[in-house]
Amino acid sequence: MSRRASISRMGLSAASVEATDDWDLRVHVTLPHLQSFRAAARAISFLPHQPARSALQGRHRARIRGRGLDFEELRNYLPGDDVRAIDWKVTARSGAPYVRVYNEERDRPTLIVVDQRMSMFFGTVQNTKSVTAAETAAIVAHRVIDQGDRLGGIVFGDQAVEELRPGRGATALTRFLSVLTQANQRLHADAAKVKPMAMNAVLRAVSRLATRDHLVIVISDFDAADAETERHMGAIAQHNDVVLALVTDPTAESLPEQGAVTGTDGQQQARLDMAAEGVRAGVLSVAADRTDLVMGWQKKMKLSVLPLTTAQDTLPQIVALMGGARR
Prior knowledge:
It is a single chain. The longest helix is centred in the C-terminal third of the chain and has 23 residues, at 279-301. The protein is of the alpha/beta class. The protein has helices spanning 31-35, 88-94, 129-146, 169-185, 199-209, 227-239, 279-301, 314-321; strands at residues 69-76, 98-104, 109-115, 150-156, 161-167, 215-220, 241-248, 260-264, 269-273, 304-309. The chain contains eight helices and ten strands.
């Protein structure tokens, strides 16, 4: 029997599932499971040249700018050189046209921010949101290392925030996936009630670590996002490439019209009568408002949003969103 038998289609939390000796990968991830995405992750890329169908290819004027440039030398202008590379001050002093030559930096730091709060321990069809987020982070992490970039991260739950400074190679990847696995496996329906971790506190840590020229990928349901969240996100996006992976469950779009649904915020439970006037509409409105807020940041901040659902396998969704072929 699996550690978690099944997640009720009617429930709004994983509180009703039974615990046994094995891991159900729909509810909790394992390190070997996250490590298994290495080969499949090659189907995507976070470099500037994106497939035409990629969500990162200039949508709403947002695009991945890629690695920065290191200044290499000044040299005489040659026919065919880009005139924008001319250094006019040196040209004026010398009386002959000179251009500035740059090389692409060998790598760039990537910061993957993964939400593993109790609000993410929730699913009604295939995965919990916490599992979809962890799998997404693992896929991205494998690809970042494979591209030769440095990998860092912030993994946060309601009780702890783990900061990992960018590093290279297998060591940085294993460290990140291990921390992510531990945070995911700490999520339990009977966990002690604690005050939810504020998203804004985490974003302040992101601003401190990703000062400029980072790729920042935030994977979350963005629970409790507000105007301050938007300000933090805008400040981060000013000097970095930012991609948001918005993880939702089908209940964000549909709820039964009759019967009762039990919901939890990780601290308290409430029984909601869907037939009562205004209850169903109110629950759907909260979910829709949060989705609209995050999706609206694409235009405001020139960043990219990848909408992910718990109702489907994670990898095919990401490949499709990044313009790759479906497998």
